[in-house]
Task: inverse folding
């Protein structure tokens, strides 16, 4: 194995361990979040984002790492995002959690994984078509929110922190 | 607020915050050792897996396909990361006895009954649609939801809102009624 592969494997083991410990791999947790009955997924994801955004901004600000925004392509994000949401609600897993769910014994995730591999192959076949249609609508490029609004990223991070912490307090009060 | 849940799991705040730490360590480590900053993600691996499988029967088709060429069909850092998720979940669940063989999840059973065939078909078709969407949007709840949000990417705010917004509407339509 190359250094890339070893590094990926170790990172993945930690990632899978934490996903499982947070109990976010399960179908019922994912559907529970979409039915707004169980906030576990929101708590988990938003906590990760709060911590991660500070470290990544510090490292990027110091020039140690490079940011890698995904393109703000209107058709891609709106149509793709909606398609994903539809499939996600039926499947009850996202790509990363399907593999983890298999690891904790929820073997029906194998059908979801098979579907996603087939979906990827279909996308590869249809890519030229999408490229000349949906993906061609309007592309704003790889933009960050701070540059787009022309304000400090630390201002955005502060507002984000305040809003999410308020939401967490509300979750706990309502026992969600 | 408790750090442990009743079934031996960790508080989602704690486990999530540790994923945040992992994301930071990971971008630093990949930059140092691979010479390129890599962010946590999962869905591109399904493209590579599809390419590797398709290559065994239709090698020319994969070699000439524009999308497979763009995403490079190989077992890379992210591919191993996705495999690692399996082992991490296996270790965590077997050590705290939450490992459980499940063929049909409770919420699904309540609505659609105990048929494995139905569950399998739903998961398979849902998987196809979700992956078409994830590849079109260029990310999933890991790549957009975690990594993109951490970087304050405009596209990730919109993508995550679409993922959950559509998910809430569709899940409401599907699971709100009980199986008769």
Result:
């Amino acid at each position: 194995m190359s250094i890339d592969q070893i590094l990926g494997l170790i990172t993945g083991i930690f990632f899978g361990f934490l996903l499982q410990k947070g109990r976010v791999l399960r179908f019922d947790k994912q559907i529970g979040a979409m039915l707004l009955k169980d906030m576990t997924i929101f708590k988990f994801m938003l906590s990760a984002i709060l911590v991660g955004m500070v470290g990544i901004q510090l490292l990027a600000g110091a020039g140690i790492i490079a940011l890698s925004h995904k393109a703000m392509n209107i058709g891609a994000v709106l149509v793709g995002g909606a398609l994903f949401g539809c499939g996600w609600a039926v499947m009850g897993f996202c790509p990363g959690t399907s593999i983890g769910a298999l690891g904790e014994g929820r073997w029906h995730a194998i059908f979801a994984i098979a579907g996603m591999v087939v979906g990827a192959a279909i996308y590869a076949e249809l890519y030229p078509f999408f490229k000349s249609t949906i993906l061609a609508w309007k592309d704003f490029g790889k933009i960050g929110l701070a540059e787009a609004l022309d304000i400090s990223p630390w201002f955005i991070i502060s507002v984000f922190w305040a809003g999410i912490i308020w939401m967490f307090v509300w979750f706990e009060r309502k026992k969600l | 607020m408790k750090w442990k849940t009743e079934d031996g799991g960790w508080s989602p705040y704690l486990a999530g915050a540790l994923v945040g730490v992992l994301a930071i360590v990971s971008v630093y480590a990949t930059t140092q050792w691979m010479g390129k900053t890599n962010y946590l993600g999962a869905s591109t691996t399904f493209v590579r897996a599809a390419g590797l499988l398709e290559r065994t029967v239709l090698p020319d088709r994969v070699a000439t396909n524009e999308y497979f060429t763009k995403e490079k069909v190989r077992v890379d850092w992210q591919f191993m990361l996705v495999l690692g998720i399996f082992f991490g979940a296996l270790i965590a669940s077997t050590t705290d006895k939450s490992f459980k063989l499940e063929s049909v999840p409770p919420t699904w059973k309540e609505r659609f009954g105990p048929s494995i065939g139905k569950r399998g078909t739903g998961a398979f078709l849902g998987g196809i649609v979700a992956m078409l969407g994830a590849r079109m949007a260029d990310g999933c709840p890991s790549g957009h939801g975690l990594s993109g949000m951490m970087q304050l990417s405009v596209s990730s705010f919109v993508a995550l809102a679409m993922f959950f917004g559509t998910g809430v509407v569709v899940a409401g339509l599907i699971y709100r009624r009980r199986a008769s």
